[in-house]
Amino acid sequence: MMIAAVSAALLGSQLLVVPVSDRVPELKVEAMCKATTADDKANGIALPQSFADCMRDETTAQQQLNTVWGAAPSSLRNSCEVEATSGGSQSYVDLLTCIQMAEWVKSPSTATRLRGAGKDRNSK
Known about the structure:
Blueprint: H1 2-14, H2 30-42, H3 51-68, H4 74-85, H5 92-106
Helix pairs in contact: 2-3, 3-5, 4-5
Protein name: UrcA family protein
Organism: Bradyrhizobium iriomotense
């Protein structure tokens, strides 16, 4: 009888659990930013990204994700989360980019036009 009560309590508590994909996942981006900064310096990059700049980019991406996450299909959120956390690296920038790219592919006419650094880029 005790086992049945515990099982019922566990079953009931599972109904209150919010799936991870319903909210922006909590990523540990500090390690990735430290590794990126170290790699840039080790490879002699002329303008290496600082840890502070990396963290700022990740925080900005996380804030942007808070506005688009709920509108993205759960299958897309799940696949992008896997991509953004694979290989032991975790990045909100990667997660946001994945979702944005999928949206652009789905409806390119409504996507923001990206313009390169051509000499006539501001004339259109």
